[in-house]
């Protein structure tokens, strides 16, 4: 009877753990939101900041931003492997310290172009350190059934920060000194908070630690490829919609709609997390990419109503794809969760780079032809045609192996 009572008590404790978040996980979700508030209070205005401080044209500014972003994403597998070695808590603490150092460098380098560029690369390095460790910490001791809820909560917290950050930045847009003083204080507070995080325990180090030269070993190929495709298509919405809507809808409408997109992700992903975790990958891809296609078609009209409708279905499609890609990567990888998230960040970077190179060239062609609505229809067609092609190639490769 004593054994049965003990087992039932253990079952109840396990059930509670399965339903709720630990204190450390809840604290980290707050930290993830605040980190993105600090980052995205600055990120939307970086082009203007760099142009003013460097005294160069937008073409040169674009090169600096592109290289910095590529470095951040390309280094993610290495920073994830680094986190695997030093521990997730230590990596998170180091990242917040580097974020704070970047904010201080922005603050003191107001009249120094070299310090401004250094601050940009420090911020990108901090992001490369923080992101894989953040997700790895959330799921390091979770079961496969708990992962959808935890990942969706982590993504929701991050997207809430992305939504609020530009609003905070707008308050200080004409006073960058106050902006960077505020972000310095924020990151100092976050460093203290991360110092008191509970160490992640032994579950995070169970997997064999590979040498740095093998950071891509154990890669889950299909989720990696689908993540590249997802961000290649998604970033065309994120990068080119503002240019397309200029002169078609008021700037304030565009800003509110884009904030609504981020809030939509915050709302949608936790609601669909359990279902997304259970559904098959092809079905999730069909839902996600079809929603993205509908969104792109809605943008083609260039009207405020179409913009709102497109953003609503885009938030559903990307919520499904972002979560399912990471879940499939975790299920298919032979590496630790932290390294797997680093590999996924690399896929995000590759997709973003393709969006800039290929998407930018295609956008330019339609712009010169004065048929910009056709650009969005072309992207919509790719949303429907490319995913089945990726699945077909993956199946052929698996058969050969």
Give your account of this protein's structure:
It is found in: Cell membrane. Residues 24-398 form the Major facilitator superfamily (MFS) profile domain. This is Putative MFS family arabinose efflux permease. It comes from Saccharothrix tamanrassetensis. The protein has 401 residues and is mainly α. The chain has 2 domains: 23-199, MFS general substrate transporter like domains (Growth Hormone, Chain: A); 216-401, Up-down Bundle (Growth Hormone, Chain: A). The protein has helices at residues 2-19, 23-40, 46-54, 58-74, 76-86, 88-108, 113-139, 147-171, 176-195, 221-245, 251-278, 281-299, 304-332, 337-368, 372-400. α7 (113-139) crosses α14 (337-368). The radius of gyration is 21 Å and the shape is globular. Mean pLDDT is 86; it is low at 1-18.
What are the SSEs and their pairings?
Blueprint: H1 2-19, H2 23-40, H3 46-54, H4 58-74, H5 76-86, H6 88-108, H7 113-139, H8 147-171, H9 176-195, H10 221-245, H11 251-278, H12 281-299, H13 304-332, H14 337-368, H15 372-400
User: What is the succession of H and E elements?
Assistant: HHHHHHHHHHHHHHH
Structural class: mainly alpha
Q: How many E-type strands? A: 0
**Shape call:** globular
How is the main sheet built?
A: none
- Under CATH at level 1, the class of the largest domain stands as Mainly Alpha
Low-confidence regions: 1-18
Question: What is the level-2 CATH architecture name of the largest domain?
Answer: Up-down Bundle
Radius of gyration: 21 Å
What is the number of helices?
15
CATH homologous superfamily placement of the largest domain: MFS general substrate transporter like domains
């Amino acid at each position: 009877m004593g054994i049965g009572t003990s087992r039932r008590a253990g079952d109840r404790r396990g059930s509670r753990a399965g339903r709720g978040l630990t204190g450390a996980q809840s604290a980290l979700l707050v930290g993830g939101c605040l980190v993105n508030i600090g980052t995205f209070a600055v990120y939307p205005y970086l082009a203007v900041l760099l142009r003013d401080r460097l005294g160069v044209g937008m073409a040169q500014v674009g090169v600096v931003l592109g290289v910095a972003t590529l470095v951040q994403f390309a280094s993610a597998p290495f920073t994830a492997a680094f986190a695997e070695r030093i521990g997730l808590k230590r990596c998170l603490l180091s990242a917040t310290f580097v974020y704070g150092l970047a904010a201080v460098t922005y603050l003191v380098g107001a009249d120094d172009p070299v310090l401004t560029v250094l601050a940009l690369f420090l911020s990108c390095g901090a992001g490369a350190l923080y992101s894989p460790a953040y997700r790895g910490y959330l799921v390091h001791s979770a079961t496969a059934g708990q992962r959808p809820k935890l990942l969706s909560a982590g993504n929701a917290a991050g997207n809430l920060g992305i939504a609020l950050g530009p609003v905070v930045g707008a308050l200080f847009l004409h006073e960058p000194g106050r902006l960077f003083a505020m972000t310095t204080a924020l990151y100092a507070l976050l460093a203290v908070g991360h110092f008191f995080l509970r160490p992640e325990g032994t579950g995070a180090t169970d997997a064999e630690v590979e040498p740095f030269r093998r950071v891509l070993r154990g890669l889950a190929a299909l989720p990696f490829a689908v993540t590249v495709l997802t961000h290649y298509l998604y970033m065309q919405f994120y990068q080119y919609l503002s240019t397309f809507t200029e002169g078609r809808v008021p700037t304030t409408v565009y800003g509110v709609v884009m904030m609504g997109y981020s809030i939509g992700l915050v709302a949608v992903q936790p609601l669909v997390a359990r279902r997304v975790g259970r559904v098959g990958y092809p079905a999730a891809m069909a839902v996600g990419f079809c929603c993205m296609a509908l969104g792109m078609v809605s943008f083609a009209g260039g009207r405020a109503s179409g913009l709102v409708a497109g953003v609503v279905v885009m938030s559903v499609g990307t919520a499904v794809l972002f979560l399912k890609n990471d879940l499939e990567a975790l299920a298919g990888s032979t590496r630790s969760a932290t390294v797997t998230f680093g590999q996924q960040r690399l896929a995000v970077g590759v997709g973003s780079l393709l969006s800039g190179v290929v998407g930018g060239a295609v956008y330019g062609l339609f712009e010169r032809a004065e048929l910009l609505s056709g650009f969005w229809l072309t992207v919509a067609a790719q949303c429907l045609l490319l995913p089945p092609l990726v699945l077909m190639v993956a199946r052929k490769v698996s058969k050969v192996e």
